[in-house]
């Protein structure tokens, strides 16, 4: 089953560590143009639209042929920006949130997230993970960890007592259900062994910040209960977990770095020039 999808790219001009990074253009294209051109190559996504609170970013996007939708500067997150613009987006079943500072995100990552929602009808949101193999990353709060279990399609049987009994169901290839996300090293190893980092299937997963939402989840976003866990860890996705919305995760072989610092951008420019 194919689902219609639209890619949205939240982009704001103010950034603390790398000022005006969306408009940096040492490659001959702005960073936001690189991200837009990369994302729109994904199969199954009919549009790639930039959501921004900056007239300057919107003008640049329209100049290179992209579509921009203006949102409030008061938006507290990329998701809040998407929810604000939801009624102005094309009527797609799936909304894929791509970070504006990820110009090297594999197109396959976007396609995988959309495909997961098609193959896992009970999931409200799809995201991505990659095996975490480095102890330094495991202990780094900036590397968000995901605790997973194999995704099983829900199946129920009616019991003679009138109770609903959950029956065993087959797993879905390449799909995992997110139990929780944390900046802490989860699951905790009561007795640490270095070979835990090499386990197959992996014991530890790093979360990658791409989300594919079913449209109805975003329509309901402002009605979801506030999440103590999300506030405690400063991880917005925990609001979904605490609200009981099933999150399915797909696996990418490796992670890509977003552009957060001047050093990150210089490395990106060097890779771009080397590829020409």
Structural commentary:
With 276 residues, the protein is of the alpha/beta class. The chain folds into two domains: 1-105 and 261-276, Alpha-Beta Complex (Spore Coat Polysaccharide Biosynthesis Protein SpsA, Chain A); 106-255, Spore Coat Polysaccharide Biosynthesis Protein SpsA, Chain A (Alpha-Beta Complex), CATH 3.90.550. It contains nine helices and eleven strands. The strands form two sheets. Strands 5-10-6-9-11 form a five-stranded mixed barrel. A two-stranded antiparallel sheet has the order 7-8. Strand 7 and strand 8 form a beta hairpin. The longest helix is centred in the last third of the chain and has 14 residues, at 262-275.
The CATH superfamily of the largest domain bears the name Spore Coat Polysaccharide Biosynthesis Protein SpsA, Chain A
- The first-level CATH class of the largest domain is given as Alpha Beta
Q: Remind me, CATH topology of the largest domain?
A: Spore Coat Polysaccharide Biosynthesis Protein SpsA, Chain A
Supply the CATH architecture of the largest domain: Alpha-Beta Complex
- Return residue spans where pLDDT drops below 50 for at least 5 consecutive residues: none
Strand order of the largest sheet: 5-10-6-9-11
Number of strands: 11
**How many distinct domains?**
2
| Rough outline | globular
Output the number of helix runs.
9
Indicate the mean pLDDT.
92
Distance between the termini: 38 Å
As a whole number of angstroms, the C-alpha radius of gyration is 20 Å
């Amino acid at each position: 089953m194919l689902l219609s999808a639209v890619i949205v790219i939240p982009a704001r001009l103010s950034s603390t560590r790398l000022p005006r990074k969306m408009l940096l253009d040492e490659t001959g294209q702005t960073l936001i143009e690189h991200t837009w051109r990369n994302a729109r190559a994904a199969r199954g996504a009919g549009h790639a639209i930039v959501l921004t609170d900056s007239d300057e970013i919107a003008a640049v996007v329209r100049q290179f042929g992209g579509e921009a939708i203006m949102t409030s500067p008061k938006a507290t997150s990329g998701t809040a920006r998407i929810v604000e613009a939801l009624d102005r987006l094309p009527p797609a079943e799936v909304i894929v949130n791509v970070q504006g500072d990820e110009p090297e995100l594999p197109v396959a990552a976007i396609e995988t997230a959309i495909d997961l929602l098609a193959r896992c009808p009970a999931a409200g949101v799809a995201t991505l993970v990659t095996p975490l193999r480095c102890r330094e990353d495991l202990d780094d709060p900036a590397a968000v960890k995901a605790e997973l279990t194999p995704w099983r399609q829900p199946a129920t049987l009616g019991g003679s007592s009138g109770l609903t009994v959950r029956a065993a169901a087959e797993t879905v290839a390449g799909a995992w259900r997110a139990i929780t996300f944390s900046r802490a090293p989860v699951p905790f190893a009561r007795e640490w062994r270095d070979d835990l980092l090499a386990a197959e299937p992996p014991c530890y997963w790093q979360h990658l910040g791409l989300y594919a939402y079913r449209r109805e989840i975003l329509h309901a976003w402002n009605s979801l209960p506030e999440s103590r866990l999300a506030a405690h860890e400063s991880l917005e996705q925990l609001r979904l977990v605490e609200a009981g919305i099933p999150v399915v995760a797909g696996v990418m072989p490796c992670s890509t770095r977003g552009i957060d610092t001047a050093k990150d951008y210089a490395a990106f420019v060097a890779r771009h020039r080397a590829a020409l």
